[in-house]
Amino acid sequence: MQGVTRLLLTRIPFYKDVIISSFTCNHCGNSNSEIDAAGKVQEYGVNTTVAITTKQDLARQVVKTDTAGVRIPEIEFEIPPGTQKGMLTIVEGILERAAAGLGSDQPLRRINNPDIAEKIQATIDKLNEFKEGQSPFTLIIDDPSGNSFVQNFLAPSEDPAMTVQHYKRTLEQNKLLALVADDDCGGETEELVVENAQTKAENMEDEVMNFNTNCSNCNAPAETHMKVLNIPHFKDIIVMATNCDVCSHRTNEVKSGSGISDKGCRITLRLTDPSDLSRDILKSETCTFSIPELHFDLQTGTLGGRFTTLEGLLTNIREQLQGTNPFMSGDGSDAEYKSRMGQFLKELEAVSNGEKLNVHVILDDPAGNSYLQNAYAPDADPEMTIVDYSRNFEQNEELGLNDMKTEDYETAIPKS
Fold first, then answer.
1. Across the beta sheet with 280-283, what order do the strands follow?
2. Under 8 Å CB-to-CB from 266, ≥6 apart: which residues?
3. Given this model, what pLDDT does residue 384 score?
């Protein structure tokens, strides 16, 4: 018999557009509901790792799209991308749904394949044990679309139990998201264009390069403009801007034009006057940004590379927090969480408006490619300190330097 499916396009406040679908059958009473992202695929994929150690952690709210994969490494359990529909749930709900899915065919499995049924039952028992909070475990959600989200109980401060990493998608992941054709072999990527630009930087200062891309919002053909700029008392940078004629969506990104520096750089500025907000700032995609007085930390990869003013960056951060946080409103929102986040956004707005001074902003870039304007240049700025430091092994690993061979790389490797 046929049932009825109802679709609703709506917007979750402080998050994004979603499509809610609900199916009901009047004949057998069967019903289900799903949630799908209706907005754009984000510029970067996102990998979220959460240590679940208490029953409170089981109540973390989760937005999981159908392109996201879920892993629990302690029991080698994985939900591959595309095998479940998108959902708005909590960590406990993910475990309960996974256990129910594995257990649905267990009666038949015990008859046909008792050995396999026994192994699957052990996994189900372990999932139920995790669901009851009897054992700690690690939950990993990897979403190439960048649209999955796990609640941070300590927001806007960093949650020590949670790690969020943003990454560039592979060609296979772009094919999965239908961003490129299945027979696409890579072609001239944005990275290749940037690499070619870096080799010709000396002759490009007065030239604007153009190359064809697709809009990140509507996927329509668009054109990206790229230009090399020189920041006085710093180095060359590459600015890329895309403007879509179809949906009017605009994006911009900044990349270093001179590679990774020999040392990392930490810049600290104390805001003493509203004019400090007009300082130019270059935040590379490898840079973290923090305001200790507000207990705020912006992790590597968030917002990508930006070349703007300090006021502009603070405004971008505030809009990002409001636009990607689905847990500040609705029936399931926590009153204490909403109050804490609301108070933080007010304080951040006061800083960006110049109303709250005597706070410090810290840029820490292991690649050494971030910059904050010195208003007293070429003299030293009394309110700003710049510290160059040697990177540790973990920082070199994140930058891919530990496996990079820069000496005798042309030497042939003897065949065994």
1. 306-309, 280-283, 371-372
2. 362, 363, 364, 365, 386, 387, 389
3. 94
